Structures are given as C-alpha cells and as structure tokens.
C-alpha cells in the first residue's frame, strides 16, 4: 500500500486523540472514584446501582420508623411500669385497709386511694411530643377525663392503632390504646362470693367503638337491703370507688345506705368486690408490658436485619459503581507509557524526509 | 531528418520536464490541501517520422495531466460521511439527554421521589405533628422542582436540536450553491474535450463530502461533467441551479424540511440532519413523554388516595398535587371542543384523537393502544364520556376535522403542590377528626412499592429506571456507532489518501528525476549546437 505523509499524520493524530480520551476518562475516574459516571458507561450497572440506592434509602427510612416506634414503646413502657406500681399500691391498700375500722385509718386509706387515682389519671394522659399516647387515633384528646355528671372517668380515645411500616408490607402498631391499658376484661366470670358469703356477680359490656369494657358489679341478691350495684370501666374508676368506699360513700358523695351499719357493710363489700377487677387490671398491665416487650424484640431483630441488609447493599453498590483504585492507577500508568512511546516514535517518524537527504 | 530536428527533440524534452516539474511543484504546494488529488504528467512519445525503412521518434509530449482518483472510493466516502454525520449528531444530543437523567451524579428524579415517599412514612409515624407535614410539603415541592427542571432540560435540548436543524439547512444551501457554481465551471473548462478539470473536481468532491456529513443525498454525474444532487428524491443541485432547502416549523414547533415545496423530512435519515430528526423523534416519544407520563401517574395516584382522606381540619376531597388537566388540540375549522376529567381513577393517561366520518359519526381512538374508545352519531353539544373523560363538541364538523386530547402534554407544566396548609394534608382515613389516624399516609407511603396500571404495571421507580436506562442505552449505542463510523471513515480516507495523497518523498524523487531530464534535454540542445558549429566550420 502506498503510504503518504498525510496518512501518517492522520494515524498519529487519531491515536493520540484516542489515548488522550482514555487518559481523560481514567483521570476523571480517579477524581470521582466512580466507575460509572453516566448511565451509558454501564447501563445495566447503573440500573443495579439505582436499585441498591433505592433499597438502601428505603431501609434507612424503615430504620427511622423503627426508631420512632421504639421511642414510643419505650416511653409507653415506662408509663406502664408506673401504672403497674400504682396498681400494686392500690392492691396493698386494699389488703391492708379492707378491714380498717377506725375513722382515722379510713380517712387515710381514702386519701391514699384518691391520690393514686389522680396519679393514674395523670399517667393515662401521658403525652409524648404532641400526642396523648393512650388515645388511639384521637391523639389530640386526653385519654381519660372525669365526668362530673356520671362521676365516672370517660375514655375519649378510640381503638385506633397507629401503624408504621418496618419493611415492605410489614406494619407494626406504635401505640397502646387506653382501652387496653386501663380497662378490664372479666368476660364469662362465674359468680363468686365474698369472704362472708355474699354473692358477687360481674358482668361486662363492651363499647365496640373504643374497646372499653364496662364492668357492672352486683353485690348481694336483688331485694336485699345491702344489695349494691355499681359500674367501673377503668382503673381510675376503680381507685375512685375505693377512695369513696373508705368514706362509706358512693362516688357521687351520697351515703350508700341510710342505715349506718348497712352503709358500712356495703362499703366493705365494695372494697372486697374490687379486689377481682384490680387483679384483672394488673394482669392486663402485665399483658400489655409483655406485648410491648414482644414488639421491641421484633423491632430489634428487624433493625439488625435492616442493618445487615444495608451492609450487603452498600457492598454491592460499591462493587457496582466504585472504581477499583489499583486497577485505575495501573491503567493510567499503562496509558501514560503508551502516550510517551507514541510521542517519541512520532517525533522520529515525522522528522524523516527525503528532502533532508538531498544535497 | 535534418540536424535541426534534434533541436526539436531536445526542446520537447525540456518542455515536458518543465511541465512535469511544475506539476510536481503543484503537488508539493498542495500537500496539506484537503481533498487534493495527486496529479501526474502522462508522457508519451510524439508521432514518429517515416524515414526509409523505419520510424524515427521525434521527442516527447505531455499527453495528459492525470489526477490519481478512484471513483469507487469517493462514493464510499460520501456514504460513510453520511453515516458519520448521523452518529455524531446522535452522540451529541443523546449525550446531553443522558446528563439530565444522570443518576450516577445524583441528578434526576430518583432521590426526590424517594424523599417524597419517605416524607409520607414520617407523616405516618407522627400524623398529628406539624413538622413531618411541613417537611412533606417541602419534599413535594422539591419533587415538583426537579421534574420541572428535567422537563426544561429536555425541552431546551429539543429547541437546540431544531435550531441546529435550521443552521445546518443554511450550510447545506451554501454548499449546494457552491456545487452548482463548480458544475458550471467544470462543464465550461472541460468543454467537450477529454481533459479533466482536476482541481475544480477536487474542490467539488470536497464539497460533496461536506454535504454528505450534513445530509443524506444521492448524486450522479452526467456526460458533461455536471453533477446532480438529490435530497429526499428532490433535486438540490441540478446543473448550475441549486434549489433552496428550507426548515419550517410544524404545529408541534418542530422544524420540517422542505425542498421544492415538498416535505421531505421523513426521507432524510442519514447525515447530521437525519440524525437530528431521528433523535428529536426519539426524545419526544420516549424521554419527554415518559417523564410526563410518570408525573401524570404520580399526580393521579396520589390525588385519588389523598382526596379520599381527611386532613387535621376535617376537610376531605382535597387534591395533593394540582389536578391533572387535559390539553386539547383543534384541527377543525368550525367546531370547538371542551373536555374534562370526570372520573380520575378511570383515566388511562393515554392520548386520544377524535375524528369524524362522512356520515357524521364521531370516532375516538386511543393513540397508544390503537383501540376505538368511543363512537356514535355526532350531535352538537352532546357530552361524550369515555375512559373517565367527558368531552363536548359544538359546531358543524366535516370528515377532515379532528381533535386530539392528551393528559400528558401539560402534566409537568401544571405539576405543583396544591396543598398549602399542612393541616389539609389528608393522613387520616376516617371522617371524624382523628389526628392519630394515619391510614392514608400509610397507603400513600406504600404506593411507592405498588405496581401502577397506567405505567404498564410497573412501580414509579422502575418506570423511571426505564427512562434512565433508555437514555443511557441510546447514548451508549450512539457513541459506539460513532466510534465504528469514525474508524471506518478514517479507513476509507486512508484508502483515498493511499491513491490520491501527495507523498513528499515521491515528489522529491520526481523533482530530481525531472531536473535531471531537463538537464539532459538542455545538454542535448548544446550537443546539437556543437554539431551545427562543426558543420558551419567546415
């Protein structure tokens, strides 16, 4: 083939251009540390990288959700511990003061029960940030308020669960409703007797909207002079009834009976009859704490799983889009050497001309 | 033969060498001239004289100045310039589009999209809080801003592409008139003789190469040496006349090519113009339409869920994003159309066209599926409902009238956050004001993992990934074919150079060769002179 000087120039300049192009590419890879700098560098790799990034981002969000749930449950658990303590104190009062005789003692127990009642109310209206934690979905309302018409404590929340996602499609509730933490559950309770043989009957009705169970307690037989019935739907009610019972009074402040002896007997009966719902409330608290514990265990294992998953994903992402520095440097040196060699050979070839040799 | 004949032989040798030397000089002078073909003096012996028993040679003449040229390679070169032109414009344009979708540098939509859905997660974890709601509104604004930026980027690119088409058309016209002028001069100088106007032809070939880089054409040379160039089956250059190629904007704002009053846009597939026209079509129907469809489907799905929920203030039926709007185009003379979305959940996000037949029936066709969405007898003012859309056409229609309906055209232009009060963000699923209710927030957060019917049952993210992958693959394919075409072009150029190129070494040799033959011719005359002197001195 006939070779002209233009062909040599053209070839050389093209090769130089290519080498410089490669050089620039490697340089930019060194600078960014990334193998993929635009989608066309590696379309499949880019798609994988987006997948990994989306998954990592999602996992981070799930972890933030877990932290949020954990924080809420932690707080709820702390409150539940105090509730549990309060119920224990009430239980102590009940067992110690169930037979209190002296006026002075009675007043003391009454005051104590009243204080625990107020404390329980405070606990039930615990607020975390701007949320009443026991109000279900109705988080801007106090969970329980005293109703001065009925003399009962009314639940203002609902049975709503505040769910958040911990994983694709996996939800967990972050709240404990007041109906779970402060109410009772005495379904199918057989009629029992107090220690003196008076029959006691507990019947329960449920408000489907709130999940609150209202317990109607009947002491004695209908028609008996000391026959007594009252309702309670939460532990505040319970403490309230206790507090008034030690004063021989109904919750509206009236006497239970006009006959002082009957009145006293009825009050004592009330105190004894409250023992069962109190036991039940304690069991419920235990259950709630167990539930919180279970959720937390699940949260922890989910969190660990997400962490592990993220490590894997980040590894894969790095493998997909990060440049191998050793390789890049070696490549760079290779191109550099080639460039140098080409420049030298070019300077020799291009300077050759017959015209120089003509004398 | 007389002694004086020897003078003539010597003179012919001097003249031929001189001519050859000047050709060599011309070659050396043009060593760097692009498109120059090496020339060569073709020497031949003059007609011999008959003497007695034989023929006696009478010297040399330059019978022809030959241009070293290969027609086949030149036509290959033109074809390859057309491919190269196309690849180079594809690479340039797709390279820019790819940067708009460059997820490797965290440009693009994936981060704002993820952030937006994450913000809904945060609202679901704290539905009564003001902070996560305000953050959600900010993230939504960021999503809107990014989508608008990307659309603007694509639209700017299309605008530049159209401007480039106009620029190239001007260059094509200027080259065409130069070719026409050269045609005239070549015909004139060759004038029926067998001589070829070498340098003029070289210049015309160079212009043809330049033209091939810009636009696809076919050409043939007639017996007079004039070349006819046709683009899109219309003559651009014919003899000494050049037609004007023009770029006119069509109703979409795209530039169409007209030659001789005929639209030849679809016939131009190669050269830079061909590349720009095809890249424009691809970007419009893929990147731009895809992005608009993604945003339209986000608007649709979020709004449907959001409107079903309740805000902290108890209001419901609020749109989260500005409602989807239909953009209409009227291709009729006397009729008007109004359209609105009546059932958002039934909207397919496809584009429709309305046509009429001679019997006054209307036909509504889904452009994306090709199916007929509705048909019936046209009655002016009667509402027609199909796929969640209701249209009302008024006025007289003819069979040439038509309308088009698109929920996509303005989807990004109208994209915006409709909720301004954080309390109106509908996180709750039930009517009574329940600040802790997060059913809708959860449902919307979950939407990011759900397959969306209007996006061919892919998720928002995987549909978007498809757009990125398309931009990346197209850019990759374009740069790969540019590399291939560049290589091939340089190979063909080398072949041309191998035949037509000037080699300085060769020319240096020729220089010496013809110098020597000139010297020998001169010596010949000197010898003849001495011979004459000898005779005169007798």
Description of the structure:
Chain A has 359 residues and is an alpha+beta fold. Chain A has 9 helices and 10 strands. In chain A, strands 7-8-9-10 form a 4-stranded antiparallel sheet. In chain A, helix 1 (5-32) packs antiparallel against helix 8 (325-351), helix 2 (43-97) packs antiparallel against helix 7 (275-321) and helix 3 (103-124) packs antiparallel against helix 5 (235-245). The longest helix of chain A is centred in the first third of the chain and has 55 residues, at 43-97. Chain B contains 9 helices and 19 strands. Chain B has helices spanning 3-29, 71-100, 110-125, 130-190, 198-214, 271-308, 439-447, 460-500, 504-536, and strands at 39-45, 49-51, 54-56, 60-67, 218-221, 227-231, 234-238, 241-242, 245-249, 255-259, 262-263, 327-330, 336-341, 352-356, 361-366, 372-377, 383-386, 389-394, 402-406. In chain B, strands 12-19-14-15-16 form a 5-stranded antiparallel sheet, with no helix packed on it. In chain B, strands 5-6-7-8 form a 4-stranded antiparallel sheet, with helices on one face. Chain B has a 3-stranded antiparallel sheet with strand order 9-10-11, with helices on one face. In chain B, strand 17 (383-386) and strand 18 (389-394) form a beta hairpin.
Short note summarizing the structure:
The complex is a heterodimer of chains A (359) and B (538). By secondary structure, chain A is of the alpha+beta class.
Count of extended strands of chain B: 19
Strand order of the largest sheet of chain B: 12-19-14-15-16
Strands ordered across the widest β-sheet of chain A: 7-8-9-10
Care to count the β-strands of chain A?
Answer: 10
Keywords:
heterodimer, A: 359 residues, alpha+beta, four-stranded antiparallel beta sheet, 10 strands, B: 538 residues, five-stranded antiparallel beta sheet, elongated
List the helices and strands and how they pair.
The complex is a heterodimer of chains A (359) and B (538).
Chain A: H1 5-32, H2 43-97, H3 103-124, E1 127-128, E2 131-132, E3 144-147, E4 152-155, E5 163-167, E6 170-173, H4 178-181, E7 192-193, E8 199-206, E9 213-219, E10 228-232, H5 235-245, H6 260-273, H7 275-321, H8 325-351, H9 354-357
Antiparallel strand pairs in A: 1-2, 3-4, 5-6, 7-8, 8-9, 9-10
Chain B: H1 3-29, E1 39-45, E2 49-51, E3 54-56, E4 60-67, H2 71-100, H3 110-125, H4 130-190, H5 198-214, E5 218-221, E6 227-231, E7 234-238, E8 241-242, E9 245-249, E10 255-259, E11 262-263, H6 271-308, E12 327-330, E13 336-341, E14 352-356, E15 361-366, E16 372-377, E17 383-386, E18 389-394, E19 402-406, H7 439-447, H8 460-500, H9 504-536
Antiparallel strand pairs in B: 1-4, 2-3, 5-6, 6-7, 7-8, 9-10, 10-11, 12-19, 13-18, 14-15, 14-19, 15-16, 17-18
């Amino acid at each position: 083939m006939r070779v002209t000087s233009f062909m040599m120039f053209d070839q050389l300049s093209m090769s130089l251009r290519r080498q410089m192009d490669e050089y620039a590419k490697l340089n930019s890879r060194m600078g960014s540390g990334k193998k993929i700098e635009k989608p066309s560098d590696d379309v499949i790799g880019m798609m994988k990288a987006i997948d990994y990034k989306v998954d990592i981002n999602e996992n981070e969000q799930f972890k933030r959700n877990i932290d949020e749930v954990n924080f809420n449950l932690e707080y709820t658990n702390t409150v539940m511990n105090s509730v549990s303590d309060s119920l224990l104190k009430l239980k102590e009062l009940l067992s110690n003061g169930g037979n209190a005789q002296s006026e002075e003692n009675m007043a003391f127990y009454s005051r104590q029960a009243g204080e625990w009642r107020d404390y329980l109310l405070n606990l039930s209206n615990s607020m975390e940030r701007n949320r009443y934690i026991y109000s279900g979905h109705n988080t801007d309302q106090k969970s329980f308020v005293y109703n001065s018409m009925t003399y009962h404590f009314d639940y203002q929340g609902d049975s709503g669960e505040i769910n958040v996602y911990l994983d694709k499609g996996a939800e967990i509730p972050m709240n404990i409703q007041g109906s779970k933490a402060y109410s009772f559950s005495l379904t199918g309770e057989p009629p029992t007797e107090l220690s003196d043989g008076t029959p006691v009957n507990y019947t329960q009705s449920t408000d489907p909207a709130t999940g609150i169970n209202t317990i109607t307690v009947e002491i004695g037989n209908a028609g008996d002079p000391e026959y007594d019935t009252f309702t309670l739907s939460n532990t505040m009610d319970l403490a309230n009834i206790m507090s008034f019972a030690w004063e021989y009074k109904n919750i509206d402040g009236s006497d239970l009976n006009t006959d002082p002896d009957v009145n006293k007997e009825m009050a004592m009966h009330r105190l004894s009859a409250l023992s069962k719902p109190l036991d039940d409330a304690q069991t419920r608290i235990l259950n709630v704490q167990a539930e919180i514990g279970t959720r937390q265990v699940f949260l922890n294992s989910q969190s660990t799983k997400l962490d592990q998953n993220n490590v894997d994903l980040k590894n894969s992402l790095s493998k997909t889009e990060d440049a191998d520095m050793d390789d890049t440097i070696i490549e760079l040196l290779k191109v550099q050497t080639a460039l140098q060699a080409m420049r030298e050979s070019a300077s020799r070839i291009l300077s050759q001309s017959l015209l120089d040799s003509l004398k | 033969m007389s002694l004086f004949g020897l003078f003539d032989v010597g003179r012919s040798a001097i003249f031929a060498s001189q001519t050859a030397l000047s050709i060599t000089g011309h070659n050396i002078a043009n060593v760097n001239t692009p498109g120059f073909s090496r020339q060569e003096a073709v020497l031949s012996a003059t007609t011999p004289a008959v003497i007695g028993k034989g023929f006696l040679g009478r010297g040399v003449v330059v019978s022809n100045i030959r241009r070293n040229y290969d027609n086949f390679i030149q036509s290959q070169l033109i074809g390859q310039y057309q491919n190269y032109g196309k690849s180079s414009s594809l690479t340039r344009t797709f390279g820019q589009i790819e940067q708009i979708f460059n997820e490797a540098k965290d440009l693009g939509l994936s981060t704002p999209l993820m952030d937006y859905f994450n913000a809904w997660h945060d609202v679901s974890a704290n539905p009564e809080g003001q902070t996560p709601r305000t953050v959600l509104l900010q993230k939504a604004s960021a999503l809107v801003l990014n989508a608008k930026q990307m659309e603007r980027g694509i639209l700017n690119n299309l605008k530049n592409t159209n401007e480039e088409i106009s620029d190239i058309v001007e260059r094509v016209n200027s080259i065409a008139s130069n070719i026409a002028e050269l045609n005239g001069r070549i015909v004139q100088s060759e004038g029926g003789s067998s001589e070829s106007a070498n340098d003029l032809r070289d210049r015309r070939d160079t212009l043809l190469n330049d033209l091939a880089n810009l636009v696809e054409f076919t050409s043939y040379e007639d017996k007079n040496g004039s070349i006819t160039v046709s683009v899109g089956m219309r003559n651009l250059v014919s003899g000494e006349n050049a037609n004007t190629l023009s770029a006119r904007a069509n109703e979409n704002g795209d530039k169409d090519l007209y030659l001789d009053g005929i639209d030849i846009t679809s016939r131009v597939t190669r050269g830079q113009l061909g590349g720009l026209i095809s890249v424009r079509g691809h970007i419009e129907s893929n990147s731009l339409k895809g992005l608009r469809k993604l945003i339209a489907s986000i608007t649709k799905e979020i709004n449907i869920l959001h409107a079903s929920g309740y805000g902290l203030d108890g209001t419901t039926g609020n749109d989260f994003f500005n409602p989807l709007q239909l953009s209409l185009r009227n291709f009729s003379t006397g009729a008007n159309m109004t359209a609105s979305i009546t059932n958002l959940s039934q909207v397919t996000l496809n584009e429709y066209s309305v046509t009429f037949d001679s019997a006054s029936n209307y036909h509504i066709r889904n452009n994306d599926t090709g199916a007929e969405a509705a048909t019936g007898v046209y009655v002016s003012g009667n509402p027609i409902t199909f796929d969640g859309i209701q249209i009302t056409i008024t006025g007289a229609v003819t069979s040439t009238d038509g309308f088009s309906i698109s929920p996509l055209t303005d989807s990004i232009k109208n994209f915006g956050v409709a909720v301004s009060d954080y309390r109106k963000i509908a996180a709750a699923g039930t009517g009574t004001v329940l600040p802790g209710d997060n059913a809708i927030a959860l449902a919307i957060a979950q939407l990011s993992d759900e397959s969306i019917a209007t996006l061919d049952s892919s998720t928002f993210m995987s549909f978007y990934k498809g757009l990125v992958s398309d931009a990346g693959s197209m850019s990759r394919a374009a740069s790969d074919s540019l590399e291939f075409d560049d290589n091939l072009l340089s190979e063909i150029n080398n072949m041309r150079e191998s035949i037509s190129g000037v080699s300085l070494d060769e020319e240096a040799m020729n220089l010496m060769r013809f110098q020597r033959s000139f010297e020998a011719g001169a010596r010949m005359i000197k010898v003849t002179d001495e011979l004459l002197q000898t005779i005169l001195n007798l």
